[in-house]
Design brief:
By secondary structure, the chain is mostly helical. The chain has a single domain, classed as Fumarate reductase/succinate dehydrogenase, transmembrane subunit (3 helical TM bundles of succinate and fumarate reductases). Helix 1 packs across helix 3 and helix 3 runs antiparallel to helix 4. 7% of the residues are buried. The radius of gyration is 20 Å and the shape is elongated. 81% of the residues lie in helices and 0% in strands. The chain is built from 4 helices and no strands.
Length: 124
């Protein structure tokens, strides 16, 4: 019996998820950069500076800053994993799954190391 080509379902593998998350984290960093440029633009006028700083001192932005830390950690460590798999391993595709999960564990440790002081400062 012939398979219908339109019934094909794509299976998400670890590499696919890592690729999608890497692209999404890159887009998040680009959006942050655009917002950062906007804030810097408004810092050269004293009245605008005070209003922008008051706006950015809202609790939602503190949570977003913590999210930014997570995005930076993931994007950086996954980028190093990609470089390692591409250039320094002979069996790159075979070990990339284990390296991804190792990167995730290392990322959780690094995120926590940066988040604990940040949350402590946020609570004060």
């Amino acid at each position: 019996m012939k398979k219908n080509i339109y019934e094909f379902k794509y299976r998400y593998h670890t590499g696919t998820v890592a690729w999608i998350l890497h692209r999404l984290s890159g887009l998040a960093l680009i959006l942050y950069l655009a917002m950062h440029i906007w804030v810097i633009h408004h810092l050269n006028r004293p009245l605008d500076f005070n209003s922008v700083m008051a706006f950015l001192n809202e609790p939602v932005f503190k949570v977003l800053e913590l999210g930014l830390w997570g995005v930076i950690v993931y994007h950086a460590l996954n980028g190093l994993r990609i470089i390692t798999v591409d250039f320094f391993t002979r069996k790159g595709a075979a070990v990339q799954k284990q390296m991804f999960w190792g990167t995730v564990l290392l990322g959780i440790v690094v995120f926590a190391a940066g988040a604990i002081p940040f949350v402590g400062h946020m609570v004060k």
